[in-house]
């Protein structure tokens, strides 16, 4: 499920003081930067060059236009010359889209033998951007600042990350999550305040009785199931004995019916994420396994046991990582391998997305033994080795927190012949002892959104757009420092609400 092509507007600030020739140069340089970034930086959006703004009226107009354009997910603002920052107050006061302040200049090197005051006046980013930075700080506007020449790889990487976060934030504003059934028995962390979440992140959570889904599932025809089964044969490794076993084929056909029925329900309602719960399956043949895995691989967010916060986060992160190597999945810290290097074996009862698979998944039928005992088709695989992150959105009661743990995913040291679910084996940074203790201190959930395509910086950018706290567990984390940061953040966010 790909997202529509989105835009980020590139807006250059100047003023009428310099005359038409300088402004003509400013416009041409801005167009050249935008063309260069669109061709070189592999951005996930179309960077659109807007006319140079030179007055409070022009600034206000472009900010209002950005607010109302559904394809615009953010703005990059740059001061080619000096742009008196009082001109920006009205526009920034009303701007509701996220923005990035690019502190750069058109030319990397100075033309030492030719430089004159005309050149100095035209290329004034060094202090024009500082003037502009002042007004953003005084107005307490959350924004990203990227400094360096626009053709540098590190600058383009930061732009790419931020644009992806802006796409995720735009997705969050219109996202609808379908919740089939309720929360799993007395579990705390999967609950939360859906009204507060909508106010903070924009997404909506809609509850449905399972019977409403059953009605749609029952409309799927045998011909549709036949066609779906052929897709399974193409996409996955299926043992001959499975395809020759009438009962096993019946279970696969059951997953096809569930997948097509859920997708039809979600598409009709405009939902891009969903939850279910193995304790509430009234009228369904069982907990969807392969069906949920395939829907996630198509871009839907998912959260098990009614976990709507993680379902939304998985969808948002899938949008952020679109087009990048590596996938994104619903995940759970399941069990530990404690040895020379402590490791976490992540999995879930059934629902791990094949976008993270290291090899072509195997499609098998095994019994589901938790909550409801029935045979369920599911994909089996292990995750690709490489750097990844686990992300947990947490409702703290009076605010939200987004918790990130950087991990290194590794290949299992041995086969797992009796494990009937997909899995990922990782080594958390800085190590399991510190990472798990810090996670617990921060109130992190046992469910996460796991990704090898999304970076820590992208999640930080997203959280800043939402105005929520982020806590990061990485190689630099110590428990003493982490607990101190938690205490400082508690005070900061309490004061922030009252200021």
UniProtKB/TrEMBL annotation:
What name does this protein carry?
L-arabinose isomerase
Q: Which HAMAP family match?
A: Arabinose_Isome
Xref: Gene3D superfamilies: 3.40.50.10940
| Cofactor dependency | Mn(2+)
Q: What does the record's cofactor remark say about binding?
A: Binds 1 Mn(2+) ion per subunit.
Top-level EC class, please? isomerase
Q: Which organism is it from?
A: Pseudoalteromonas lipolytica
Q: Name one Pfam family in it.
A: Arabinose_Iso_C
| Entry-linked InterPro entries | Ara_Isoase_C, AraA_central, AraA_N, AraA_N_sf, Fuc/Ara_isomerase_C, Fucose_isomerase_N/cen_sf, Lara_isomerase
Keyword vocabulary terms for this entry: Arabinose catabolism, Carbohydrate metabolism, Isomerase, Manganese, Metal-binding
> Alphabetically, which GO biological process terms does the record hold?
L-arabinose catabolic process to D-xylulose 5-phosphate
Which PANTHER family did the record assign?
L-ARABINOSE ISOMERASE
Q: Which residues form the L-arabinose isomerase C-terminal domain?
A: 327-469
Q: Which pathway or pathways does this protein act in?
A: Carbohydrate degradation; L-arabinose degradation via L-ribulose; D-xylulose 5-phosphate from L-arabinose (bacterial route): step 1/3
Q: Does the keyword Hydrolase apply?
A: no
Q: Where does Mn(2+) bind?
A: 305, 332, 348, 447
Reactions performed catalytically:
beta-L-arabinopyranose = L-ribulose
What task does this protein carry out? Answer: Catalyzes the conversion of L-arabinose to L-ribulose.
**Of which family is this protein a member?**
Belongs to the arabinose isomerase family.
* GO CC terms, sorted: cytosol
Alphabetized GO MF terms: L-arabinose isomerase activity; manganese ion binding
Q: What is its EC number?
A: 5.3.1.4
Task: Tell me which residues make up the L-arabinose isomerase N-terminal domain.
Answer: 7-173
């Amino acid at each position: 499920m790909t997202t529509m092509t989105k835009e980020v507007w590139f807006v250059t600030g100047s003023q009428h003081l310099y005359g038409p020739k300088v402004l003509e140069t400013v416009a041409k340089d801005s167009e050249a930067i935008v063309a260069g970034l669109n061709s070189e930086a592999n951005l996930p959006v179309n960077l659109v060059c807007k006319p140079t703004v030179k007055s409070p009226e022009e600034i206000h107009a472009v900010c209002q236009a950005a607010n109302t354009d559904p394809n615009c997910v953010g703005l990059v603002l740059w001061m080619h010359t000096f742009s008196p920052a009082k001109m920006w107050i009205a526009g920034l006061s009303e701007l509701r889209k996220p923005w990035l302040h690019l502190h750069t200049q058109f030319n990397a090197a100075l033309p030492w033998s030719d430089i004159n005051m005309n050149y100095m006046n035209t290329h004034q980013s060094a202090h024009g951007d500082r003037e502009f930075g002042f007004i953003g700080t005084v107005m307490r506007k959350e924004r990203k600042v990227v400094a360096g020449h626009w053709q540098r790889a590190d600058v383009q990487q930061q732009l790419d990350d931020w644009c992806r976060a802006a796409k995720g934030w735009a997705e969050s504003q219109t996202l609808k999550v379908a919740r089939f059934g309720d929360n799993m028995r007395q579990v705390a962390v999967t609950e939360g305040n859906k009204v507060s979440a909508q106010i903070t992140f924009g997404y909506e959570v809609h509850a449905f009785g399972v019977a409403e889904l059953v009605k749609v599932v029952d409309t799927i025809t045998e011909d549709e199931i036949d066609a779906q089964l052929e897709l399974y044969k193409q996409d996955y490794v299926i043992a001959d004995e499975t395809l020759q076993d009438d009962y096993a084929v019946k279970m696969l056909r059951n997953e096809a019916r569930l997948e097509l029925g859920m997708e039809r329900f979600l598409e009709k309602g405009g939902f891009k994420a969903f939850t279910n719960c193995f304790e509430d399956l009234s009228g369904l043949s069982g907990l969807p396994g392969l069906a949920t895995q395939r829907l996630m691989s198509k871009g839907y967010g998912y959260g098990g046991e009614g976990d709507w916060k993680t379902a939304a986060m998985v969808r948002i992160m899938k949008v952020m990582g679109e087009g990048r190597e590596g996938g994104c999945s619903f995940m759970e810290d399941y069990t530990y391998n404690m040895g020379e290097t402590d490791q976490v074996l992540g999995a879930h009862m059934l629902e791990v997305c094949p976008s993270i698979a290291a090899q072509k998944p195997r499609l098998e039928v095994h019994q589901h033994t938790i909550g409801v005992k029935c045979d369920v088709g599911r994909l089996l695989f292990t995750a690709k080795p490489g750097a990844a992150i686990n992300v947990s959105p947490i409702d703290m009661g009076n605010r939200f927190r987004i918790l990130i743990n950087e991990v290194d995913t590794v290949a299992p040291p041995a086969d797992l012949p009796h494990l009937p679910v997909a899995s990922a084996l990782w080594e958390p940074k800085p190590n399991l002892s510190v990472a798990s203790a810090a996670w617990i201190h921060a109130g992190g959930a046992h469910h996460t959104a796991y990704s090898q395509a999304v970076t820590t910086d992208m999640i930080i950018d997203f959280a800043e757009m939402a105005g929520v706290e982020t806590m990061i567990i990485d190689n630099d984390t110590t428990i003493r420092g982490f607990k101190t940061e938690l205490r400082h953040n508690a005070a900061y966010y309490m004061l922030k609400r009252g200021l």
